[in-house]
Every structure is written in structure tokens, then in C-alpha cells.
Automatic annotation (TrEMBL):
<keyword id="KW-0012">Acyltransferase</keyword>
<dbReference type="Pfam" id="PF00814">
    <property type="entry name" value="TsaD"/>
</dbReference>
<feature type="binding site">
    <location>
        <position position="173"/>
    </location>
    <ligand>
        <name>substrate</name>
    </ligand>
</feature>
<comment type="function">
    <text>Required for the formation of a threonylcarbamoyl group on adenosine at position 37 (t(6)A37) in tRNAs that read codons beginning with adenine. Is involved in the transfer of the threonylcarbamoyl moiety of threonylcarbamoyl-AMP (TC-AMP) to the N6 group of A37, together with TsaE and TsaB. TsaD likely plays a direct catalytic role in this reaction.</text>
</comment>
<feature type="binding site">
    <location>
        <position position="308"/>
    </location>
    <ligand>
        <name>Fe cation</name>
    </ligand>
</feature>
<dbReference type="InterPro" id="IPR022450">
    <property type="entry name" value="TsaD"/>
</dbReference>
<feature type="domain" description="Gcp-like">
    <location>
        <begin position="29"/>
        <end position="314"/>
    </location>
</feature>
<dbReference type="InterPro" id="IPR000905">
    <property type="entry name" value="Gcp-like_dom"/>
</dbReference>
<dbReference type="InterPro" id="IPR043129">
    <property type="entry name" value="ATPase_NBD"/>
</dbReference>
<dbReference type="GO" id="GO:0061711">
    <property type="term" value="F:tRNA N(6)-L-threonylcarbamoyladenine synthase activity"/>
</dbReference>
<dbReference type="InterPro" id="IPR017861">
    <property type="entry name" value="KAE1/TsaD"/>
</dbReference>
<dbReference type="InterPro" id="IPR017860">
    <property type="entry name" value="Peptidase_M22_CS"/>
</dbReference>
<dbReference type="GO" id="GO:0002949">
    <property type="term" value="P:tRNA threonylcarbamoyladenosine modification"/>
</dbReference>
<protein>
    <recommendedName>
        <fullName>tRNA N6-adenosine threonylcarbamoyltransferase</fullName>
        <ecNumber>2.3.1.234</ecNumber>
    </recommendedName>
</protein>
<keyword id="KW-0808">Transferase</keyword>
<comment type="similarity">
    <text>Belongs to the KAE1 / TsaD family.</text>
</comment>
<keyword id="KW-0963">Cytoplasm</keyword>
Length: 339
């Protein structure tokens, strides 16, 4: 059984490294984590530039690893297992984390384990002060994915529904761009929405009454585009804030209603929300209210662990090994799975 697990995340624009300790069957304990975000570097380009991302991961991953070990008061040699994000993500960026993990593993003569990025997000609420218990419904809402899952245990995931086009985070990001807001768009749109009237614009809620648990956000983006064009050159800021608030309300309503539907369909009374969009305050408010009214418990990751980080990767690896759901290996001929 691995006791100290180092986790490395490098799938997109954050380099994250973390160390967790496994003790028996309990939830692994986060000893230290460090993160470098590339947001400022990509902001000038309006989005993530893959090659710049890879080059920056290379610059950061060794110093962050040293920082984590120093924070935890542990020597490099104390690491029992090195975990990395195997995918999905940007190929070049993933290769940096995988390369670092396998080089460390080979040098230390310790096993390595590639982890699915979404499983990291999914399990991240276990690091919160109020960890969930299995089984639960998971609403996974990131920049690349929007999924509802039934989760019966580590590695026991049943996909109930997912987006047929854009992800919820993508809907936030693309709408933000149309509103002339910077990258990353989600938090920027949420800030502008605070000053707006969410009922000002009637925007579509695609697939809301589809009868299944799938999502679609592409039509919403088109509607936002139409409205944003009308606002071009407008002297007053209020309509933009109103459009931001209306967009956020449309995305949130769909996420909340479909989550409730998944709970109802399965009879489960526990909801776990994970992924970057899970940081959205309006989503949390509405889910909290809807779930409280139905006697459903909701769990979120700590706010700073909603977006990409190394802690969730170390945790997912540790929990998979604990559950016997993964076999770490000393084959250092690693590969990554961008898609
Ligand atoms: O999980 P994540 O860090 O990366 C992926 O795996 O995709 O999620 C990033 C996404 C971006 O689309 C970002 O705009 C969105 O999460 N996001 C938010 C908020 N914070 C991050 N969306 C809405 N409100 C927020 N507060
Ligand atoms: Zn992510």
C-alpha cells in the first residue's frame, strides 16, 4: 500500500503538484499542494496557447515539486507512488506531467499511475471538510465536460447524461468572449452578472424538457451572440450586465433542473458537484436551495480545489489504489490520452 502519493496535474493551463498520505481505509489526507496558474500568460491571446502552456509547465513542475516536499517536510525518497494526469487535455502539456512523473518514478524505483483528469475532479469533494459518502449523483461541470453520473464507489461510475455539444464552462467562456470579457470567461461573466437583471433577456434552455439527462449549450451561445451584436457600441453598461446575468441564469437553470431529475430518477439523496463551474456562486445558491427543499445533501470541493489542481490527482490515485481499482506500474514508457 502506497503511503505517500505525489500527484502532478498539467493537462491545461495550471501546473499543480500535491502530496497526500494514505492511512488505512480512511480518506487520504492532503499534506501539501502548490499551484501555478498560467492565466496571465494566456490572457493576451484570449485563450490557452498550447505550446506556451507546455513550455511553462516545464519551467514550473520541478520548483513546485520541491515546494510541496518542503511544505510537507518530506524528502523526495519518501514518495511511494507518483501519479499524473494521463488525460484528457492538451497533448504537449500532458506529456510534461507524465514525463516528470515517470522520470521521478524511475529515479526513485517507485511505481507510477496515470489518472483520468475528470476522476480527479469527481473525487475532489472528498478533500473538503464535509466529504460525501457513496453512492451519489455527480454533476461534473468543467471547461471541457458536462456530465451527470451515478457514482457507487471509486471506479464505479455510470454515465447518465452529458452535453451533446458545448460544455457548461465553454458556454460561460464563449458567452464571456462575446460580451468582450477576458479569459477565463466564467469568473469574469459571473462578476459582471452580479450587477445585472437575470430576467432581462429571454434566452433558450436547450434540452431542458428533453426527457433525458443530456445537455446542449450551443444554441444558447448563438442567442447570446445575437443579443451581444445589438449591444455593440452601446453607451450604457447595464444591458451588458443584464445579458451576462441572463446567460448565467440560463446555464444554471439547466444544470440545476437536470441534476434534480437525475436524483429523482435514481432515488439517490446525495449530490456532488465538481469541476471549474462548480465554483460559480449562483449555481451553488440555486443548488443549495433546491436540494434543501428536497432533503438532498450537496457536496462541493473547497473553492480553491474546484479548478484544476494537483491535489485531486494525488487523491484520485490514492483512492483508486485503496479501492483496488488501479494497479500502479513500474513501466515508465508512459503515454497520454489527450481525448
Ligand atoms: O475544471 P476546470 O478548471 O478545467 C477543465 O478541466 O476544463 O474548469 C474550467 C472552467 C472554465 O470554463 C471556467 O470559465 C469555468 O470553469 N469557471 C467558472 C467559474 N470559475 C471557473 N464558470 C463560472 N463561474 C465561475 N465562478
Ligand atoms: Zn479540469
Amino acid at each position: 500500500m502506497a503511503h505517500l502519493v505525489l500527484g502532478i496535474e498539467s493537462s491545461c493551463d495550471e501546473t499543480g503538484v500535491a502530496l497526500v498520505r494514505v492511512q488505512g481505509e480512511g480518506v487520504p489526507q492532503l499534506l501539501a499542494h502548490a499551484l501555478h496558474t498560467q492565466v496571465a500568460m494566456h490572457a493576451d491571446y484570449g485563450g490557452v496557447v498550447p505550446e506556451l502552456a507546455s513550455r511553462d509547465h516545464i519551467r514550473r513542475v520541478v520548483p513546485l515539486t520541491k515546494e510541496v516536499l518542503a511544505q510537507a517536510g518530506q524528502a523526495l525518497e519518501a514518495i511511494d507512488l507518483v501519479a499524473f494526469t494521463r488525460g484528457p487535455g492538451l497533448a504537449g502539456a500532458l506529456l510534461v506531467g507524465a514525463g516528470m512523473a515517470c522520470a521521478l518514478g524511475a529515479a526513485l524505483d517507485k511505481p507510477v499511475l496515470g489518472v483520468h483528469h475528470l476522476e480527479g475532479h469527481l473525487l475532489s469533494p472528498f478533500l473538503s471538510a464535509d466529504p460525501p459518502e457513496f453512492p451519489f449523483i455527480a454533476l461534473l461541470v468543467s471547461g471541457g465536460h458536462t456530465q451527470l453520473m451515478r457514482v457507487d464507489g471509486v471506479g464505479r461510475y455510470e454515465l447518465l447524461g452529458e452535453t451533446i455539444d458545448d460544455a457548461a464552462g465553454e458556454a460561460f467562456d464563449k458567452s464571456a468572449k462575446l460580451l468582450g470579457l477576458g479569459y477565463p470567461g466564467g469568473p469574469a461573466l459571473a462578476r459582471l452578472a452580479e450587477f445585472g437583471d437575470a430576467t432581462a433577456y429571454k434566452l433558450p434552455r436547450p434540452l431542458l424538457h428533453s426527457g433525458n439527462l443530456d445537455f446542449s449549450f450551443a444554441g444558447l451561445k448563438t442567442a447570446v451572440l445575437t443579443q451581444a451584436r445589438r449591444l455593440e457600441g452601446a453607451a450604457c453598461e447595464q444591458p451588458r450586465a443584464d445579458l451576462a446575468a441572463s446567460t448565467q441564469a440560463a446555464i444554471v437553470e439547466v444544470l440545476v433542473k437536470k441534476s434534480l431529475k437525475a436524483l429523482q430518477a435514481t432515488g439517490l439523496r446525495r449530490l456532488v458537484v465538481a469541476g471549474g463551474v462548480g465554483a460559480n456562486a449562483r449555481l451553488r445558491e440555486e443548488l443549495n436551495a433546491a436540494c434543501a427543499a428536497r432533503g438532498v445533501r450537496v457536496h462541493y470541493p473547497e473553492l480553491h480545489l474546484c479548478t484544476d489542481n494537483g491535489a485531486m490527482i494525488a487523491l484520485a490515485a490514492a483512492m483508486r489504489v485503496q479501492a483496488g481499482a488501479a494497479q500502479p506500474s513500474q513501466n515508465y514508457a508512459f503515454d497520454v490520452k489527450p481525448r
